[in-house]
Design goal:
Strand content of chain A: over 45%
Number of strands of chain A: 11
Shape of chain B: globular
Number of helices of chain A: 0
Distance between the termini of chain A: 37 Å
Radius of gyration of chain B: 13 Å
Largest interface: A-B, 25 and 22 residues
Number of strands of chain B: 9
Shape of chain A: globular
Largest sheet of chain B: 5 strands, mixed
Oligomer: heterodimer
Helix content of chain A: under 10%
Strand content of chain B: over 45%
Structural class of chain B: mainly beta
Largest sheet of chain A: 7 strands, mixed
Helix content of chain B: under 10%
Strand order of the largest sheet of chain B: 1-9-8-3-4
């Protein structure tokens, strides 16, 4: 079974530039998550989709971050404009519908903002 | 969701059992205990979860105390590849399936 795919794996940008990350979840998984992981910390949930609807985006900085999941499959996360503090690993995860089901994580995209 | 407390780091000799403790003294009756781990430069990986009974799978065993205020993840024969950050997470089982990660325990398996 193919895992969660993410691209790019690494990205370096200047502050105030824009950047986009892509995620393709495991086939059949209805729920998709984007996490931000700052060095030395655990992942923090940014947004959660159920199919193409948003379940939780309470910790998404909506003035600069946006995410979409058109057609309920793959998803993009965008930052515009980026700040230095956005330097982090951005992780995508997916899970099947269910109350206790495990989440499967992708390898992440490491973003460096200079 | 209840908060968890884990040691910052632990060492374990290769081939020995690694016992990772987690305190969750404010856990409520409908909260499960989950364990994930994150190997360097990879995304987190699910290990195991439980409600009140001890659980075992091919990766590990989860021992939950009778009062459910603490638990221990056991890797029976640790290898160098088990070196990772281990996260203990307590989660209410409800629609949304949200996980809240803390800082975790850095486990170093040494030869």
């Amino acid at each position: 079974e193919a895992g969660v795919a993410q691209s790019p794996r690494y990205k370096i940008i200047e502050k105030r530039q824009s950047v986009a990350f892509w995620c393709n979840p495991i086939s059949g998984h209805a729920t998709l998550y984007w996490y931000q992981q700052i060095l030395g910390q655990g992942p923090k949930l940014l947004i959660q989709f159920q199919n193409n609807g948003v379940v939780d985006d309470s910790q998404l900085p909506k003035d600069r971050f946006s995410a979409e999941r058109l057609k309920g499959v793959d998803s993009t996360l965008k930052i515009q404009p980026a700040k230095l503090e956005d330097s982090a690993v951005y992780l995508c995860a997916s899970s099947p519908i269910g109350l206790v089901n495990e989440q499967f994580f992708g390898p992440g995209t490491r973003l460096t903002v200079l | 969701d209840a908060k968890t407390t884990q040691p910052t780091s632990m060492d374990c000799a290769e081939g020995r059992a690694a016992n990772l403790p987690c305190n969750h003294s404010t856990i409520s009756g409908n909260e499960y205990v989950y364990w994930y781990r994150q190997i360097h430069s990879q995304g987190p990986q699910y290990i195991i979860h439980g409600l009140k009974n001890n659980e075992t799978n091919e990766m590990a065993s989860l021992i939950i105390t009778e009062d459910r205020k603490s638990s221990t993840l056991i890797l029976p024969h640790a290898t160098l590849r088990d070196t990772a950050v281990y996260y203990c997470i307590v989660r209410v089982v409800e629609y949304g399936n949200k996980l809240v990660f803390g800082a975790g325990t850095i486990l170093r398996v040494k030869s």
